[in-house]
Amino acid sequence: MSEIKTAVLADIKACMKSGDKARLGVLRLISSAVKQREVDERVDTDDAAMISILDKMAKQRRESIEQFTTAGRADLADAEKAELEIIKAYLPEQLSEAEINQAIDKAVTDSGASSIRDMGKVMGILKPELQGKADMAAVSSLVKSRLG
């Protein structure tokens, strides 16, 4: 079983005992997403799959925060920010911009990319390496500006 999944399940039990309902709700959402994937794909979830699930959930929260802020709903944006912080606690530490640029440079060199048409090759190299450690939408725009 995945270390991250084990930590989430242990934290669910701890939140149930302590009565931390807000955190418990988010942890149950994570657990539900994991179980859904395991049922759909008939596989046991490893750490890479957990990072993928958590990264997707974090992305959804970031998009919601942006939409709620634009709509002037600070109360809903704050709730999403709180959920995002809980989800981020289970993701690997985020890379700095310098580390991301270094990874992009290496991927461009390794793939021999020379134009925007080679973006798929570069992203194919970067995604497994940076998934969960960086916002892939931001990485994509950096690659696009580098190759464009």
Brief characterization of the structure:
With 148 residues, this protein is mainly α. The protein has two domains: 3-88, Uncharacterised protein YqeY/AIM41, N-terminal domain (Hypothetical Protein Yqey, Chain: A, domain1, Orthogonal Bundle); 97-147, Arc Repressor Mutant, subunit A, CATH 1.10.10.410.
Verbal overview:
- The chain is mainly alpha-helical.
- The protein folds into two domains: 3-88, Hypothetical Protein Yqey, Chain: A, domain1; 97-147, Arc Repressor Mutant, subunit A (Orthogonal Bundle).
- Helices cover 78% and strands 0% of the residues.
- The chain has seven helices and no strands.
- It has helices at residues 3-18, 21-41, 47-70, 74-88, 97-111, 119-130, 136-147.
Q: Name the CATH superfamily assignment of the largest domain.
A: Uncharacterised protein YqeY/AIM41, N-terminal domain
CATH class of the largest domain: Mainly Alpha
**How many structural domains does the protein architecture include?**
2
By helix and strand content, what is the structural category? mainly alpha
Question: In which range does the helix fraction lie?
Answer: over 70%
Give a quick set of tags describing it:
single chain; 148 residues; mainly alpha; Hypothetical Protein Yqey, Chain: A, domain1; Arc Repressor Mutant, subunit A; 2 domains; 7 helices; 78% helix; 0% strand; globular
Which helices and strands occur, and which strands form pairs?
Blueprint: H1 3-18, H2 21-41, H3 47-70, H4 74-88, H5 97-111, H6 119-130, H7 136-147
